[in-house]
Design goal:
Elements lengths: L5 H7 L13 H10 L10 H4 L6 H6 L3
């Protein structure tokens, strides 16, 4: 199934991994990272995203 919003999502996506096959396909991205016990880049600040650490623990440390 094609995503009607893929191009719009790509413009707003903060992920720096532009070659990712899921870029702009948010539901696939969330599923991929959930399986790895991670969060997608859109949950992180721009500075946090640059670390490429997508762990839930890293996310929570940045919010305490």
């Amino acid at each position: 199934m094609a995503c009607e919003r893929r191009e719009e999502n790509r413009k707003a996506c903060p992920c720096s991994h532009r070659e990712c096959s899921r870029h702009g396909l948010c539901c696939q991205c969330v599923e991929y990272h959930r399986e790895k016990r991670q969060l997608p880049a859109c949950f992180f600040t721009a500075e946090e995203e640059k670390t490429l650490d997508r762990s839930v623990e890293f996310f929570l440390r940045g919010r305490t």
